[in-house]
């Protein structure tokens, strides 16, 4: 079999979506226990440390020009420090289903940014795909909860519009971070080195952020062994594995296609939620997720 003919970069993007779908469930409990900022800081520092050990042990380190290093740091600050903090704040407010669907909007956002800054064109079919994605997200958010579903994963906290705004901010941060990193990965940068720099600088930013005298960002509850294991495990899965796969996908795939495939996690999270909560998601959730996938398919077709 000719493995060189396999769409390995696209498969890596789909594997990223699997990692992110599973992580949204694993992370819900520790993110709520610690608070979004403390949770993200522990994740990022632990994963950056593990990646640094891997890079050193395998000799993957490569010299980075000041320009490339600055771009990676900017990608980490915007895509991970800002994006992840907003995502897990949204997760605390909306639960994994709605927050993951909102986060999927990073795909059409990346397509628009790729058009604006990387010279990638948008066909009419791609524009239609973006519109279908937005319609699916809105449907799943407002009509996706089954009546009588009282599981903690489906219980919203605070005004819905705040959670939606946080989720959109997280998606935009991810899209901007991806667009910044895309040219570097296409130039042959090692994905493990890129992940280490991006996650490391985000962890440093969060560590400094937690020193500020702002009560709302403080760690909410003491760190237990169970919470620590869930936090580090979610970080390894989402960032150590998922983010590295995503960067590898960008090394050979187009921005819009890779972002689209990696953002299919909303559809993947629904059966996982069904298994976890033993409560079938409402028809609106399935229909909304289906529209998101259809929109992504249109976007994929429109980008080729």
User: What portion of residues is helical?
Assistant: over 70%
Mean pLDDT: 82
Query: Poorly predicted ranges (pLDDT <50, ≥5 residues)?
Result: 1-5
How far apart are the first and last residues' alpha carbons, in Å? Answer: 25 Å
Topology pattern, helix = H, strand = E:
HHHHHHHHHHHH
Number-wise, the strands total 0
Kindly name the structural category.
Answer: mainly alpha
DSSP strand content: under 5%
Characterize the largest beta sheet: strand count, sense, and whether it forms a barrel. Answer: none
**Net shape:** globular
Number of helices: 12
What Rg is obtained from the alpha carbons, in whole angstroms? Answer: 18 Å
How is this structure best described in words?
The protein is mostly helical and 304 residues long. Helices cover 77% and strands 0% of the residues. It has twelve helices and no strands. Helix 1 runs antiparallel to helix 9 (225-250) and helix 4 (66-103) crosses helix 8 (191-209). The two termini are 25 Å apart.
In short:
The chain is mainly α. It is built from twelve helices and no strands.
Descriptive keywords:
304 residues; globular; mainly alpha; disordered N terminus
How are the secondary structure elements laid out?
Blueprint: H1 8-26, H2 28-34, H3 36-58, H4 66-103, H5 106-117, H6 124-143, H7 160-186, H8 191-209, H9 225-250, H10 255-262, H11 265-277, H12 283-303
Helix pairs in contact: 1-4, 1-9, 1-10, 1-11, 2-3, 2-9, 3-4, 3-8, 3-9, 4-7, 4-8, 4-11, 5-7, 5-10, 6-12, 8-9, 10-12
């Amino acid at each position: 079999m000719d493995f060189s003919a396999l769409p390995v970069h696209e498969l890596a993007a789909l594997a990223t979506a699997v990692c992110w779908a599973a992580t949204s469930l694993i992370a819900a409990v520790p993110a709520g226990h610690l608070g979004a900022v403390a949770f993200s800081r522990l994740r990022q520092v632990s994963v950056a440390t593990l990646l640094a050990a891997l890079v050193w042990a395998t000799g993957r380190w490569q010299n980075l020009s000041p320009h490339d290093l600055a771009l990676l740091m900017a990608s980490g600050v915007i895509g991970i420090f800002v994006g992840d903090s907003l995502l897990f704040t949204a997760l605390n407010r909306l639960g994994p289903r709605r927050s993951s669907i909102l986060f999927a909007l990073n795909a059409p956002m990346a397509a628009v940014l790729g058009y604006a800054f990387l010279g990638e064109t948008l066909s009419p079919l791609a524009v239609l795909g973006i519109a279908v994605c937005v319609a699916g997200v809105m449907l799943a958010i407002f009509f996706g909860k089954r009546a009588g579903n009282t599981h903690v994963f489906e219980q919203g906290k605070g005004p819905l519009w705040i959670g939606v705004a946080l989720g959109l901010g997280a998606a935009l941060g991810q899209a901007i971070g991806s667009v910044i990193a895309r040219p570097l990965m296409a130039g042959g940068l090692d994905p493990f080195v890129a992940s280490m720099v991006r996650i490391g600088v985000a962890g440093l930013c969060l560590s400094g952020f937690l020193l500020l005298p702002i009560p709302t960002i403080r760690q909410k509850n003491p760190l237990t062994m169970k919470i620590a294991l869930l936090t580090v495990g979610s970080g390894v899965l989402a960032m150590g594995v998922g983010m590295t796969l995503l960067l590898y996908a960008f090394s050979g795939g187009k921005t819009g296609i890779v972002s689209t495939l990696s953002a299919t996690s909303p559809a993947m999270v629904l059966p996982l939620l069904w298994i976890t909560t033993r409560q079938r998601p409402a028809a609106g959730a399935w229909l909304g997720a289906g529209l998101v996938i259809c929109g992504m398919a249109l976007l994929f077709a429109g980008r080729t």
